[in-house]
Design brief:
99 residues; elongated
Length: 99
């Protein structure tokens, strides 16, 4: 008897086969905030943007880890959460949230 093989795409966060729109949105938001925070931390005069995006990235990252379902989601969340934390700490060290 022939059986059909159900292959999942190679790049997916839904490794269990179920859609997770809320969790994937938190992953995308944390990734965006983490990348912005880490990138802008290299520029001294952008410390306000760096610290705010870092703080928001930390909050969304922790919330995303709290509600995440799959390992792929947690993997991306932890990497971008660390990038947000680095940006936040450098932004606070250079002037803080309000300048």
């Amino acid at each position: 008897m022939a059986q059909s093989v159900h292959r999942m795409p190679a790049l997916t966060l839904n490794t269990d086969g179920h859609p997770h729109p809320r969790e994937n949105t938190l992953v995308a938001l944390t990734a965006l905030l983490g990348i912005v925070s880490f990138t802008t931390s290299f520029f001294y005069n952008l410390h306000v943007l760096t610290s705010w995006t870092g703080l928001l990235g930390i909050v969304t990252g922790f919330w995303g880890v709290f509600v995440s379902v799959t390992t792929a989601e947690r993997f991306i969340l932890m990497i971008t959460l660390a990038a947000s934390a680095v940006g936040f700490y450098l932004g606070v060290a250079r002037g803080g949230l309000w300048g």
